[in-house]
Amino acid sequence: MSAPRRLDINQYQSMVAELRQFRGQKLRVLLLAEHEPRQYGEHIIKALEEAGWMLDVRRSINSISQPTYGLHVYGPHPESSLAIQALISELVEAGNPVYSAGSNDTEFQLSITLKPDPGVSITTPGRDPRLWHLPSGSSWTR
After folding, report:
1. How are beta strands 109-112 and 71-75 bridged, if at all?
2. Where are the domains of the chain?
3. How far, in whole angstroms, is CA 118 from its chain's centroid?
4. Exposure of 41 by Cβ count < 10 A (0-12 exposed, 13-18 middle, 19+ buried)?
5. How far apart are CA 125 and CA 118, in angstroms?
6. How is 33-98 classified by DSSP, letter by letter?
7. Mean pLDDT of all residues in the chain?
């Protein structure tokens, strides 16, 4: 198992600086019960709060039954929101694979799931593998 994810100080400051221009953006954040994604998610939440985003944080109390990897962004046409595209870009810059897809939700949601080990397939049945945003040089497969 690889080391837990973390935002280093430069990634944290970059995220806050880049996303501050979208102060007031609403985002629902779902954190898993598992320790690693929960701990990593709390750092992302802190950066988003410092940037002035309006968060609805939901912390799961149950573990997931089927492994889901990476970070997932859903909502009404995420590709047309400058704020959400900036968020995806910052998350990818921090080394995360991010799946982004439209949904019938009226608000945007960020789910912080398990860290994929290098070489692990991050695809989930029923999800379009072309909708993944991968960090340059990553070894994850879709």
Report:
1. antiparallel
2. 22-133
3. 18
4. buried
5. 19
6. SSHHHHHHHHHHHHHHHHTT-EEEEEE--S--SS--BSEEEEES-GGG-HHHHHHHHHHHHTT--E
7. 90
How far apart, in whole angstroms, are the C-alpha atoms of residue 34 and residue 78?
27
pLDDT digits (tens, 9 = 90+) for 48-82: 999 999 999 999 988 777 778 899 999 998 888 99
Q: Is 110 exposed, middle or buried (0-12, 13-18, 19+ CB in 10 A)?
A: buried
Q: Angle between the 35-50 and 9-19 helix axes, to the nearest 10 degrees?
A: 50
Q: Is 119 helix (H, G, I), strand (E, B) or coil?
A: coil
Q: Does domain 22-133 fall into CATH 3.90.1280?
A: no
Angle between the 9-19 and 82-93 helix axes, to the nearest 10 degrees?
170
Angle at CA of residue 106, ends 100 and 112, nearest 5°: 40
Average pLDDT over residues 15-27: 98
Contacts 24+ apart (CB under 8 A), 126-131: 127/99, 127/101, 128/101, 131/99, 131/100, 131/101
